[in-house]
Write a structure and sequence with these properties.
single chain, alpha+beta, 4 helices
Length: 128
């Protein structure tokens, strides 16, 4: 979508604070923030049973891996991931359902916003 607008393209490709994250780095960031992975917004690119990966001799082995390892392996296999989009939940609400809340307060106060920032994260604390 950025290719249709020169200013958006420049921001996407040349932003000085942009930083790429691998799937393992993303999982580690979530853990540091006291969050847990929910799901990918678009799941098929990360799953061994979908698309061209499913037709390879490695598909069965990849599908048997734990989810984080499978997601990381398929990311490397495909080599075309441009942006990760995911849903994550606070760890302090395990088993209680995960309603969406738009407040800024963090339950328990045990995790600071700055602890969740990657080395070049935005002010929102997101990984980039």
């Amino acid at each position: 979508m950025d290719f249709g607008h020169p200013d958006a393209l420049a921001d996407a490709l040349l932003h000085p604070l942009d930083r790429a994250y691998t799937v393992p780095q993303l999982y580690a960031w979530l853990e540091r923030c006291g969050m847990s992975f929910g799901r990918w917004v678009e799941q098929a690119p990360y799953l061994a049973q979908c698309g061209m990966v499913a037709r390879t001799p490695l598909a069965e082995h990849l599908a048997s891996l734990p989810a984080p390892s499978q997601h990381a392996a398929v990311e490397l296999f495909r080599g075309t991931m441009v942006r990760h989009k995911l849903i994550a939940y606070r760890d302090d609400r395990a088993g209680a359902g995960q309603p969406i809340a738009f407040g800024r307060a963090m339950a328990g106060g045990s995790t600071s916003r700055s602890a969740c920032r990657g080395p070049f994260a935005s002010e929102s604390g997101s990984p980039g």
